[in-house]
Amino acid sequence: MNAKKQLTEGLITNNPVLVQQIGLCATMAISTTLFNGIGMGLSVLIILTCCNVVVSAIRKIIPGQVRLAIFVVVIAGFVTIVDLLLQAFIPALSSALGVFIPLIVVNCIIIGRAEAFSSKEGVFLSFRDGVFQGLGYTCVLVLMCLVRELLGSGTIGGGILNGATSFFTLDGTGAGIRIIPEGFGAGALVLPFGGFLTLGCLMAVMQYALRKSNEKKARKEKEVKE
Amino acid sequence: MFASIVTISLAAILTNNFIFSQFLGICPFLGVSNKMSTATGMSVAVIFVMTMASAICWVINEFLLIPFGVAGFMQTVAYILVIAVLVQFVEMFLKKAIPALYSAMGIFLPLITTNCAVLGVVLLNTQNSYNFLESVIDGFTGGLGFTVAIVLFASVRERLEFADYPKAFEGFAICLVTAALFALAFMGFSGMKIPV
Protein backbone atom coordinates (compact mmCIF):
# COMPACT_ATOMS: atom_id res chain seq x y z
CA MET A 1 0.00 0.00 0.00
CA ASN A 2 1.63 3.27 -1.07
CA ALA A 3 1.48 6.63 0.68
CA LYS A 4 -0.49 8.36 -2.07
CA LYS A 5 -3.29 5.82 -1.92
CA GLN A 6 -3.46 6.07 1.87
CA LEU A 7 -3.62 9.85 1.64
CA THR A 8 -6.54 9.86 -0.80
CA GLU A 9 -8.29 7.26 1.35
CA GLY A 10 -7.92 9.37 4.47
CA LEU A 11 -8.90 12.63 2.84
CA ILE A 12 -11.58 11.55 0.37
CA THR A 13 -12.55 7.99 -0.51
CA ASN A 14 -12.47 6.61 3.05
CA ASN A 15 -12.79 9.84 5.02
CA PRO A 16 -13.57 9.02 8.67
CA VAL A 17 -16.44 11.49 9.06
CA LEU A 18 -18.00 11.88 5.63
CA VAL A 19 -17.64 8.32 4.30
CA GLN A 20 -17.13 5.97 7.27
CA GLN A 21 -19.57 8.21 9.20
CA ILE A 22 -17.97 7.73 12.62
CA GLY A 23 -16.88 10.20 15.27
CA LEU A 24 -19.79 12.52 14.56
CA CYS A 25 -20.47 13.79 18.10
CA ALA A 26 -17.42 16.00 18.50
CA THR A 27 -17.51 17.04 14.84
CA MET A 28 -20.89 18.69 15.29
CA ALA A 29 -20.41 19.90 18.84
CA ILE A 30 -17.22 21.95 18.63
CA SER A 31 -17.18 23.20 15.03
CA THR A 32 -18.24 26.76 15.83
CA THR A 33 -14.91 28.59 15.47
CA LEU A 34 -11.77 27.84 13.48
CA PHE A 35 -9.75 27.76 16.73
CA ASN A 36 -11.83 24.87 18.10
CA GLY A 37 -11.79 23.02 14.78
CA ILE A 38 -8.04 23.09 14.24
CA GLY A 39 -7.36 22.37 17.93
CA MET A 40 -9.68 19.38 18.05
CA GLY A 41 -8.49 18.08 14.68
CA LEU A 42 -4.82 18.21 15.63
CA SER A 43 -5.48 16.66 19.06
CA VAL A 44 -7.25 13.73 17.40
CA LEU A 45 -4.48 13.46 14.79
CA ILE A 46 -1.78 13.21 17.49
CA ILE A 47 -3.73 10.75 19.64
CA LEU A 48 -4.70 8.63 16.64
CA THR A 49 -1.12 8.43 15.38
CA CYS A 50 0.31 7.53 18.80
CA CYS A 51 -2.38 4.89 19.44
CA ASN A 52 -1.93 3.40 15.98
CA VAL A 53 1.82 3.06 16.51
CA VAL A 54 1.49 1.52 19.98
CA VAL A 55 -1.33 -0.85 19.04
CA SER A 56 0.54 -1.95 15.96
CA ALA A 57 3.75 -2.50 17.96
CA ILE A 58 2.03 -4.73 20.54
CA ARG A 59 -0.40 -6.41 18.13
CA LYS A 60 1.35 -9.79 18.31
CA ILE A 61 1.46 -10.07 22.09
CA ILE A 62 -2.10 -9.08 23.04
CA PRO A 63 -4.63 -11.91 23.33
CA GLY A 64 -7.64 -11.61 21.05
CA GLN A 65 -10.36 -11.74 23.72
CA VAL A 66 -9.17 -8.73 25.71
CA ARG A 67 -7.84 -6.64 22.82
CA LEU A 68 -10.64 -4.04 23.00
CA ALA A 69 -10.00 -3.43 26.70
CA ILE A 70 -6.28 -2.97 25.97
CA PHE A 71 -7.01 -0.57 23.09
CA VAL A 72 -9.23 1.50 25.38
CA VAL A 73 -6.55 1.72 28.06
CA VAL A 74 -3.90 2.75 25.51
CA ILE A 75 -6.25 5.39 24.06
CA ALA A 76 -7.24 6.69 27.50
CA GLY A 77 -3.59 7.08 28.40
CA PHE A 78 -2.77 9.20 25.35
CA VAL A 79 -5.98 11.23 25.72
CA THR A 80 -5.03 12.08 29.30
CA ILE A 81 -1.56 13.18 28.17
CA VAL A 82 -3.00 15.48 25.50
CA ASP A 83 -5.67 16.76 27.89
CA LEU A 84 -3.10 17.73 30.53
CA LEU A 85 -0.75 19.27 27.93
CA LEU A 86 -3.59 21.43 26.59
CA GLN A 87 -4.59 22.50 30.09
CA ALA A 88 -1.01 23.54 30.76
CA PHE A 89 0.00 25.23 27.50
CA ILE A 90 -3.20 26.28 25.65
CA PRO A 91 -5.77 26.74 28.46
CA ALA A 92 -8.10 28.75 26.18
CA LEU A 93 -8.47 25.74 23.87
CA SER A 94 -8.90 23.37 26.80
CA SER A 95 -11.79 25.39 28.23
CA ALA A 96 -13.38 25.90 24.78
CA LEU A 97 -13.42 22.18 23.98
CA GLY A 98 -14.36 21.24 27.56
CA VAL A 99 -15.60 17.70 28.01
CA PHE A 100 -14.95 16.79 24.37
CA ILE A 101 -11.20 16.34 24.93
CA PRO A 102 -11.60 13.50 27.48
CA LEU A 103 -14.42 12.16 25.30
CA ILE A 104 -11.88 11.43 22.52
CA VAL A 105 -11.47 8.14 24.46
CA VAL A 106 -14.80 6.94 23.11
CA ASN A 107 -14.37 8.54 19.69
CA CYS A 108 -15.13 5.70 17.28
CA ILE A 109 -12.44 6.87 14.81
CA ILE A 110 -9.58 5.88 17.10
CA ILE A 111 -10.90 2.53 18.31
CA GLY A 112 -12.16 1.87 14.78
CA ARG A 113 -8.71 2.40 13.21
CA ALA A 114 -7.10 0.30 15.96
CA GLU A 115 -9.49 -2.57 15.28
CA ALA A 116 -9.64 -2.29 11.48
CA PHE A 117 -6.11 -1.25 10.59
CA SER A 118 -3.30 -1.03 13.10
CA SER A 119 -4.02 -4.36 14.82
CA LYS A 120 -3.28 -6.03 11.47
CA GLU A 121 -0.59 -3.89 9.78
CA GLY A 122 3.01 -2.91 10.52
CA VAL A 123 4.17 0.02 12.62
CA PHE A 124 5.17 2.34 9.77
CA LEU A 125 1.98 1.78 7.77
CA SER A 126 -0.08 2.36 10.92
CA PHE A 127 1.80 5.56 11.63
CA ARG A 128 1.00 6.84 8.14
CA ASP A 129 -2.60 5.71 8.46
CA GLY A 130 -2.94 7.65 11.72
CA VAL A 131 -1.53 10.84 10.17
CA PHE A 132 -3.68 10.65 7.03
CA GLN A 133 -6.92 9.66 8.76
CA GLY A 134 -6.29 12.41 11.30
CA LEU A 135 -5.72 14.88 8.46
CA GLY A 136 -9.01 13.79 6.87
CA TYR A 137 -10.78 14.41 10.18
CA THR A 138 -9.11 17.81 10.59
CA CYS A 139 -10.09 18.86 7.06
CA VAL A 140 -13.76 18.05 7.67
CA LEU A 141 -13.69 19.92 10.99
CA VAL A 142 -12.08 22.99 9.38
CA LEU A 143 -14.62 22.91 6.56
CA MET A 144 -17.51 22.68 9.02
CA CYS A 145 -16.06 25.52 11.08
CA LEU A 146 -15.59 27.76 8.04
CA VAL A 147 -19.18 27.23 6.90
CA ARG A 148 -20.80 27.59 10.31
CA GLU A 149 -18.67 30.49 11.44
CA LEU A 150 -18.95 32.48 8.22
CA LEU A 151 -22.69 32.05 7.78
CA GLY A 152 -23.56 31.95 11.48
CA SER A 153 -21.53 34.72 13.07
CA GLY A 154 -20.09 36.35 9.95
CA THR A 155 -16.38 35.95 10.72
CA ILE A 156 -13.46 33.80 9.58
CA GLY A 157 -10.77 32.41 11.87
CA GLY A 158 -12.46 33.19 15.20
CA GLY A 159 -10.22 32.41 18.17
CA ILE A 160 -6.87 32.40 16.37
CA LEU A 161 -6.87 35.46 14.10
CA ASN A 162 -7.11 39.16 14.96
CA GLY A 163 -6.30 38.79 18.67
CA ALA A 164 -6.06 41.51 21.31
CA THR A 165 -2.26 41.65 21.31
CA SER A 166 -1.16 40.13 18.00
CA PHE A 167 -2.75 39.09 14.69
CA PHE A 168 -2.11 35.38 15.25
CA THR A 169 -2.96 34.33 18.80
CA LEU A 170 -3.53 31.20 20.88
CA ASP A 171 -4.94 32.87 23.99
CA GLY A 172 -8.56 32.74 22.81
CA THR A 173 -9.00 36.52 22.42
CA GLY A 174 -9.04 36.40 18.60
CA ALA A 175 -12.15 38.04 17.20
CA GLY A 176 -11.67 36.74 13.66
CA ILE A 177 -11.89 38.68 10.41
CA ARG A 178 -15.40 40.02 9.91
CA ILE A 179 -16.86 39.30 6.46
CA ILE A 180 -20.58 39.73 7.06
CA PRO A 181 -21.61 42.80 9.12
CA GLU A 182 -22.63 42.10 12.71
CA GLY A 183 -26.28 41.11 13.13
CA PHE A 184 -26.66 39.83 9.57
CA GLY A 185 -25.43 36.26 10.15
CA ALA A 186 -27.83 33.30 10.35
CA GLY A 187 -27.31 32.86 14.10
CA ALA A 188 -29.00 29.44 14.21
CA LEU A 189 -26.01 27.91 12.38
CA VAL A 190 -23.75 28.22 15.43
CA LEU A 191 -26.43 26.53 17.58
CA PRO A 192 -26.84 22.72 17.70
CA PHE A 193 -29.32 22.96 14.81
CA GLY A 194 -26.55 24.25 12.53
CA GLY A 195 -24.23 21.39 13.48
CA PHE A 196 -26.67 18.72 12.36
CA LEU A 197 -27.67 20.62 9.21
CA THR A 198 -24.14 21.47 8.04
CA LEU A 199 -22.84 17.93 8.54
CA GLY A 200 -25.90 16.46 6.77
CA CYS A 201 -25.36 18.72 3.77
CA LEU A 202 -21.59 18.03 3.66
CA MET A 203 -22.28 14.29 3.68
CA ALA A 204 -24.76 14.68 0.84
CA VAL A 205 -22.23 16.69 -1.21
CA MET A 206 -19.60 14.00 -0.58
CA GLN A 207 -21.94 11.17 -1.61
CA TYR A 208 -22.89 13.07 -4.77
CA ALA A 209 -19.25 13.71 -5.70
CA LEU A 210 -18.17 10.13 -5.01
CA ARG A 211 -21.02 8.71 -7.08
CA LYS A 212 -20.21 11.02 -10.00
CA SER A 213 -16.53 10.07 -9.95
CA ASN A 214 -17.36 6.36 -9.74
CA GLU A 215 -19.72 6.64 -12.71
CA LYS A 216 -17.02 8.45 -14.67
CA LYS A 217 -14.49 5.76 -13.83
CA ALA A 218 -16.90 2.99 -14.85
CA ARG A 219 -17.60 4.72 -18.14
CA LYS A 220 -13.88 5.09 -18.87
CA GLU A 221 -13.24 1.43 -18.14
CA LYS A 222 -16.06 0.47 -20.45
CA GLU A 223 -14.58 2.60 -23.23
CA VAL A 224 -11.16 1.04 -22.74
CA LYS A 225 -12.67 -2.45 -22.98
CA GLU A 226 -14.52 -1.61 -26.16
CA MET B 1 -32.35 20.07 47.36
CA PHE B 2 -35.65 19.38 45.68
CA ALA B 3 -35.25 22.38 43.40
CA SER B 4 -31.79 21.31 42.29
CA ILE B 5 -33.04 17.80 41.49
CA VAL B 6 -35.93 19.14 39.44
CA THR B 7 -33.59 21.54 37.62
CA ILE B 8 -31.15 18.75 36.79
CA SER B 9 -33.93 16.47 35.53
CA LEU B 10 -35.51 19.17 33.43
CA ALA B 11 -32.17 20.10 31.88
CA ALA B 12 -31.21 16.51 31.12
CA ILE B 13 -34.54 15.60 29.51
CA LEU B 14 -35.63 18.77 27.74
CA THR B 15 -33.64 21.99 27.86
CA ASN B 16 -30.19 20.46 27.60
CA ASN B 17 -31.05 17.16 25.94
CA PHE B 18 -28.01 14.92 25.57
CA ILE B 19 -28.53 14.35 21.89
CA PHE B 20 -30.15 17.46 20.51
CA SER B 21 -28.20 20.09 22.37
CA GLN B 22 -25.05 18.47 23.76
CA PHE B 23 -24.23 16.11 20.86
CA LEU B 24 -23.50 13.16 23.14
CA GLY B 25 -24.37 9.69 21.92
CA ILE B 26 -24.93 10.49 18.25
CA CYS B 27 -23.46 7.22 16.94
CA PRO B 28 -25.94 4.84 18.64
CA PHE B 29 -28.67 7.42 18.08
CA LEU B 30 -28.22 7.22 14.31
CA GLY B 31 -27.21 3.56 14.34
CA VAL B 32 -30.17 1.93 16.05
CA SER B 33 -33.02 4.38 15.45
CA ASN B 34 -34.19 2.75 12.21
CA LYS B 35 -36.66 0.49 14.02
CA MET B 36 -38.84 1.30 17.02
CA SER B 37 -38.20 -2.04 18.76
CA THR B 38 -34.41 -1.77 18.63
CA ALA B 39 -34.60 1.88 19.69
CA THR B 40 -36.53 1.04 22.86
CA GLY B 41 -34.22 -1.91 23.66
CA MET B 42 -31.18 0.31 23.37
CA SER B 43 -32.78 3.04 25.49
CA VAL B 44 -33.53 0.69 28.39
CA ALA B 45 -29.94 -0.55 28.39
CA VAL B 46 -28.58 3.01 28.21
CA ILE B 47 -30.76 4.25 31.10
CA PHE B 48 -29.53 1.39 33.26
CA VAL B 49 -25.85 1.77 32.42
CA MET B 50 -25.91 5.58 32.74
CA THR B 51 -27.52 5.42 36.19
CA MET B 52 -25.18 2.72 37.46
CA ALA B 53 -22.08 4.37 35.97
CA SER B 54 -22.97 7.72 37.56
CA ALA B 55 -23.33 6.07 40.98
CA ILE B 56 -20.19 3.89 40.83
CA CYS B 57 -17.95 6.56 39.31
CA TRP B 58 -19.00 9.07 41.95
CA VAL B 59 -18.03 6.62 44.69
CA ILE B 60 -14.72 5.78 43.01
CA ASN B 61 -13.86 9.43 42.45
CA GLU B 62 -14.77 10.50 45.98
CA PHE B 63 -13.28 7.61 47.99
CA LEU B 64 -10.43 6.38 45.79
CA LEU B 65 -9.15 8.96 43.31
CA ILE B 66 -9.38 12.13 45.41
CA PRO B 67 -7.92 10.67 48.68
CA PHE B 68 -4.94 9.26 46.78
CA GLY B 69 -4.47 12.54 44.89
CA VAL B 70 -4.61 11.00 41.43
CA ALA B 71 -7.95 12.46 40.30
CA GLY B 72 -6.32 14.84 37.81
CA PHE B 73 -4.80 12.25 35.54
CA MET B 74 -6.55 8.97 36.39
CA GLN B 75 -10.16 10.10 36.06
CA THR B 76 -10.69 9.36 32.37
CA VAL B 77 -8.90 6.01 32.54
CA ALA B 78 -10.74 4.94 35.71
CA TYR B 79 -14.14 5.99 34.39
CA ILE B 80 -13.83 4.23 31.05
CA LEU B 81 -12.70 1.05 32.81
CA VAL B 82 -15.66 1.23 35.21
CA ILE B 83 -18.04 1.63 32.27
CA ALA B 84 -16.44 -1.24 30.33
CA VAL B 85 -16.58 -3.56 33.35
CA LEU B 86 -20.14 -2.48 34.15
CA VAL B 87 -21.33 -3.21 30.63
CA GLN B 88 -19.61 -6.60 30.70
CA PHE B 89 -21.19 -7.36 34.07
CA VAL B 90 -24.69 -6.35 32.94
CA GLU B 91 -24.25 -8.57 29.91
CA MET B 92 -23.28 -11.60 31.99
CA PHE B 93 -26.01 -10.97 34.56
CA LEU B 94 -28.75 -10.68 31.95
CA LYS B 95 -27.50 -13.78 30.14
CA LYS B 96 -27.89 -15.87 33.31
CA ALA B 97 -30.88 -14.21 34.97
CA ILE B 98 -33.19 -12.90 32.25
CA PRO B 99 -32.23 -14.67 29.00
CA ALA B 100 -35.28 -13.29 27.16
CA LEU B 101 -34.25 -9.69 27.78
CA TYR B 102 -30.65 -10.58 26.96
CA SER B 103 -31.52 -11.96 23.55
CA ALA B 104 -33.75 -8.95 22.91
CA MET B 105 -30.99 -6.41 23.42
CA GLY B 106 -27.88 -8.58 23.43
CA ILE B 107 -26.14 -6.93 20.49
CA PHE B 108 -26.58 -3.40 21.84
CA LEU B 109 -24.95 -4.06 25.17
CA PRO B 110 -21.29 -4.10 24.05
CA LEU B 111 -21.96 -0.97 21.99
CA ILE B 112 -22.81 1.03 25.11
CA THR B 113 -19.15 1.08 26.19
CA THR B 114 -18.33 3.45 23.34
CA ASN B 115 -21.51 5.50 23.76
CA CYS B 116 -20.16 8.93 24.59
CA ALA B 117 -23.35 9.85 26.47
CA VAL B 118 -22.30 7.44 29.25
CA LEU B 119 -18.75 8.73 29.68
CA GLY B 120 -20.07 12.24 29.03
CA VAL B 121 -22.59 12.18 31.87
CA VAL B 122 -19.98 10.86 34.31
CA LEU B 123 -17.43 13.52 33.33
CA LEU B 124 -20.04 16.29 33.50
CA ASN B 125 -21.11 15.11 36.97
CA THR B 126 -17.54 15.48 38.15
CA GLN B 127 -17.10 18.81 36.36
CA ASN B 128 -20.26 20.26 37.96
CA SER B 129 -19.24 18.72 41.34
CA TYR B 130 -22.63 17.11 41.89
CA ASN B 131 -23.21 15.12 45.09
CA PHE B 132 -24.15 11.43 45.04
CA LEU B 133 -27.91 11.89 44.68
CA GLU B 134 -27.56 14.60 42.04
CA SER B 135 -25.15 12.41 40.04
CA VAL B 136 -27.52 9.45 40.08
CA ILE B 137 -30.47 11.66 39.13
CA ASP B 138 -28.45 13.23 36.32
CA GLY B 139 -27.48 9.77 35.02
CA PHE B 140 -31.04 8.46 35.15
CA THR B 141 -32.70 11.50 33.60
CA GLY B 142 -29.91 11.78 31.03
CA GLY B 143 -30.84 8.25 29.99
CA LEU B 144 -34.49 9.32 29.87
CA GLY B 145 -33.53 12.25 27.65
CA PHE B 146 -31.71 9.82 25.35
CA THR B 147 -34.86 7.67 25.28
CA VAL B 148 -37.12 10.61 24.44
CA ALA B 149 -34.83 11.63 21.59
CA ILE B 150 -34.31 8.17 20.12
CA VAL B 151 -37.98 7.09 20.36
CA LEU B 152 -39.23 10.32 18.76
CA PHE B 153 -36.61 10.05 16.06
CA ALA B 154 -37.32 6.36 15.35
CA SER B 155 -40.99 7.11 14.76
CA VAL B 156 -40.09 9.81 12.22
CA ARG B 157 -37.42 7.69 10.59
CA GLU B 158 -39.86 4.84 9.94
CA ARG B 159 -41.79 7.25 7.74
CA LEU B 160 -38.67 8.67 6.15
CA GLU B 161 -38.32 5.49 4.11
CA PHE B 162 -41.28 6.49 1.98
CA ALA B 163 -40.23 10.12 1.61
CA ASP B 164 -39.01 11.52 -1.68
CA TYR B 165 -35.69 13.32 -1.21
CA PRO B 166 -32.62 13.89 -3.47
CA LYS B 167 -30.59 10.73 -3.97
CA ALA B 168 -27.41 12.33 -2.64
CA PHE B 169 -29.02 12.59 0.82
CA GLU B 170 -29.44 8.80 1.17
CA GLY B 171 -28.45 7.23 4.49
CA PHE B 172 -27.14 9.28 7.40
CA ALA B 173 -27.29 12.61 5.53
CA ILE B 174 -31.09 12.86 5.50
CA CYS B 175 -31.17 11.60 9.11
CA LEU B 176 -28.89 14.44 10.15
CA VAL B 177 -31.06 17.01 8.40
CA THR B 178 -34.11 15.55 10.17
CA ALA B 179 -32.24 15.64 13.47
CA ALA B 180 -31.45 19.30 12.77
CA LEU B 181 -35.18 20.05 12.69
CA PHE B 182 -35.58 18.15 15.98
CA ALA B 183 -32.79 20.24 17.49
CA LEU B 184 -34.59 23.37 16.34
CA ALA B 185 -37.77 22.14 18.03
CA PHE B 186 -35.91 21.31 21.26
CA MET B 187 -34.48 24.85 21.25
CA GLY B 188 -38.02 25.92 22.10
CA PHE B 189 -37.54 24.47 25.60
CA SER B 190 -34.37 26.43 26.23
CA GLY B 191 -35.99 29.27 28.16
CA MET B 192 -37.57 26.96 30.76
CA LYS B 193 -36.33 27.44 34.32
CA ILE B 194 -37.46 26.51 37.81
CA PRO B 195 -37.99 29.66 39.91
CA VAL B 196 -35.93 29.25 43.09
Query: What is the rounded distance between the termini of chain A?
Result: 30 Å
- Strand fraction band of chain B? under 5%
How much of the sequence of chain A is in beta strands?
under 5%
**Which outline of chain A best applies?**
globular
End-to-end Cα distance of chain B, whole Å, is: 11 Å
Mean pLDDT of chain A: 88
Helix content of chain B: over 70%
User: Biggest β-sheet of chain B, characterized?
Assistant: none
Secondary-structure class of chain B: mainly alpha
Could you give the order of the helices and strands of chain A? HHHHHHHEEH
Number of helices of chain A: 8
Question: Would you kindly provide a written description of the structure presented here, covering whatever features stand out?
Answer:
The complex is a heterodimer of chains A (226) and B (196). Chain A has 226 residues and is an all-alpha fold. Chain A has helices at residues 3-13, 24-30, 34-57, 67-89, 91-97, 108-118, 123-152, 192-225, and strands at residues 155-156, 177-178. Chain A has one domain (3-225). In chain A, helix 3 packs parallel to helix 6 (108-118) and helix 4 crosses helix 6 (108-118). Chain A contains eight helices and two strands; from the N terminus they run H-H-H-H-H-H-H-E-E-H. The model of chain A has no long low-confidence stretch (mean pLDDT 88). A two-stranded antiparallel ribbon of chain A has the order 1-2. Chain B is mainly alpha-helical. Chain B has one domain (2-189). Helices cover 73% and strands 0% of the residues of chain B. The relative contact order of chain B is 0.20. The mean pLDDT of chain B is 87. The A-B interface holds A 21-22, 24-26, 28-29, 68-69, 72-73, 76-77, 79-80, 83-84, 98-99, 102-103, 105-108, 111, 188, 191-197, 199-201, 203-205, 207-208, 211 and B 20-27, 30, 72-77, 80-81, 84, 113-116, 119-120, 123-124, 127, 166, 168-177, 179-181, 183-184, 186-187.
